[in-house]
Amino acid sequence: MQSRPITPVRTYLAAWAALLLLVPAMIGLAYLPLGGFTALAVYAVGAMEAVLVMRYFMHLKRSSSLTVVFAAAGFFWLAFLFTLSLSDFMTRTRIAPPW
Amino acid sequence: MPTAEARTGVALQFDDADQRHEAAKLGMWTFLATEVLFFGVLFAAYTVSRIRYPEAFALAGGHTDLLLGGCETAVLITSSATMSLALRGVRIGASRAALALLGVTALLGVAFVCIHGLEYYHEYGEHLVPQLDFSFDEPHAREAELFFWLYYVMTGFHVLHVLIGVAVISAMGALVWRRRVGPDYDAPVELTGLYWSFVDVVWIFLFPTFYLVAR
Q1: pLDDT at residue B186 greater than cutoff 70
Q2: Where are chain A's structural domains?
Q3: Is A53 at the interface with chain B, CB within 8 A?
Q4: Which residues pair with B134 in a beta bridge?
Q5: pLDDT higher than threshold 70 for residue B7
Q6: Going from the N-terminus, what domains does chain B have, and what CATH number goes with each?
Q7: Which contiguous run of DSSP H or E holds residue B128?
Q8: From residue A50, how far is each of A68, A96, B198 by CA, in Å?
Q9: Which stretch of DSSP H or E encloses residue B146?
Q10: What are φ and ψ of residue B94, in 5° steps?
Q11: Which DSSP letter does residue A61 get?
Q12: Distance, CA of B169 to CA of B196 (rounded, Å)
């Protein structure tokens, strides 16, 4: 029955409480004067929340390694999409025509 | 001679019920990977636009309703927890509790859609709907319209996912009611839970994207 574990109720409740605490933390960070790092900090909290949801509510913590690889695959390709798109858009410079 | 299915209780291609369950989960995660890319391109479009027009996105981002957005976040996180508890209920054979928890999950999903509808209604009143009725008194009106275009496309597709989720969760309620799922077979409920929590994960990233821009 390894693929169908029964998670204790308190684990779900702890994950839920942690997530509800991270939401105001995220909002608080958005108001801090961190300049360009605000967005980075806010999305870092978002990533923490996403990991909590996937580990506990989507049971990745107690899933097989193969399932974790399948779950990571989508985000892996997403990283490619962002890296290649931004390496284009963030390095474009306007080149003056030679005439 | 008994068929393989009669011997093991599962279809020919599986060794046993556990392997079937594992295969179902892998299939669902594969579908969710395509969903990551579906929302991913929209997030990439947003990122490129925000890097190009930071002032416009900061101004436009001030027009979304942070209080309602925060409530929606709490509602979806809570519904993800109740969905996981519903799966636990099915797994341990507590079908009454499971049915109640599925009902709460579906109602929280409906609440999310209602709050979002209220937001859309307010924004329509403020003339912030591109194409239909858009006027922006502050500078960078064209770029702000792009922000709201992305806002409606991304949150609109997300709301569509929530509505599909509510329908599927209701169907799971019917399966639990008719005892078609239980401790021996709970894959449909687990896969629904995976989908529902994924919709929650998408919102966790949509929330800072539209409600926490340059606050």
Answers
A1: yes
A2: 9-89
A3: yes
A4: B128
A5: no
A6: 19-211 (1.20.120.80)
A7: strand B128-129
A8: 14, 44, 9
A9: helix B141-177
A10: -90, 75
A11: G
A12: 9
Cβ of residue A13 closer than 8 Å to a chain B Cβ: yes
- What is the Cβ-side half-sphere exposure of residue B55, based on CA atoms within 13 angstroms? 5
pLDDT(A20) > 90? yes
Judge whether A3 and A37 are in contact, CB under 8 Å: no
The per-residue pLDDT for A99 is 80
Q: What angle do CA B31, B34, B37 make, to 5 degrees?
A: 155
Q: Which residues pair with B128 in a beta bridge?
A: B134
| Helix ranges restricted to H, B10-140 | 17-52, 54-61, 66-92, 95-125
CB contact under 8 A, B44 and A3: no
3-class DSSP assignment, residue B129: strand
Written as six digits, the tokens of B198 are 């994924």
Shortest Cα–Cα distance, B22 to chain A (Å) = 6
Integer Cα distance of B176 and B95 in angstroms: 6
Cα three-residue angle A18-A22-A27, rounded to 5 degrees = 160
d(CA B12, CA B19): 12
Neighbours of B41 (CB within 10 A): 12
Q: Span A62-91, mean pLDDT?
A: 94
Say if the Cβ atoms of A26 and B212 lie within 8 Å.
yes
Q: What percent of chain B has pLDDT over 90?
A: 86
Give the C-alpha separation, B38 to A6, whole Å.
Answer: 32
